[in-house]
Design goal:
The structure is a single chain. A hairpin with a 5-residue loop joins strand 6 and strand 7. Helices cover about 35% and strands about 40% of the residues. Strands 1, 2, 3, 4, 5, 6 and 7 form a seven-stranded mixed beta sheet that branches. The chain has about 150 residues and is α+β, with helices and mostly antiparallel strands. It has a single domain, classed as Nuclear Transport Factor 2, Chain: A. This is DUF4440 domain-containing protein. Keywords: Signal. It comes from Chryseobacterium hagamense. Pfam families: Lumazine_bd_2.
Length: about 150
């Protein structure tokens, strides 16, 4: 009985790890696309109706996904380096939430830090896409993420 329980636990951990890897993929591809100024990769991570927002000092600002991709694709490779730590992933059916503190570097120099909150949806083809992304930005009390 102990062997069966151990095997079930191992298989459950493997399956859960696989689910998380699939949920993390568009998040990690977003930052890879930013770092490489890769417009096609950036387009591939967002759903068709995605929303991008930032919490600023004077409220919440919404940015067009197309404008974001256009802006990022105009930078030189390696200029944008957002280093994240995935702190939490929650999933219920075709909805997932990912929380990632980050530090952001521009051309190798620290710019700001904060946290990203992602809402992802699983598409009909089984692929996870970013539906909603909101972040905070600050320059103080930052913990460097390697």
């Amino acid at each position: 009985m102990k062997k069966i329980s151990a095997v079930a636990l191992l298989l459950g951990s493997f399956c859960f790890g696989q689910q998380n890897a699939e949920i993390e993929k568009p998040v990690r591809n977003l930052f890879s696309g930013m770092k490489n100024a890769d417009a096609e990769l950036l387009k591939s991570v967002f759903s068709d109706t995605a929303i991008l927002q930032t919490i600023a000092g004077d409220g919440v600002k919404t940015e067009s996904i197309d404008d974001f991709i256009h802006s990022v694709s105009k930078t030189e490779k390696e200029a944008l380096d957002e280093r994240i730590t995935i702190e939490a992933i929650h999933k219920d059916g075709n909805l997932a939430s990912v929380f990632t503190p980050y530090t952001f570097y521009f051309r190798g120099k620290f710019s700001h830090c904060g946290a990203n909150s992602f809402q992802l949806v699983k598409q009909r083809n089984g692929e996870w896409k970013i539906q909603y992304l909101i972040d905070t930005r600050r320059k103080d009390q930052c913990k460097e993420i390697k």
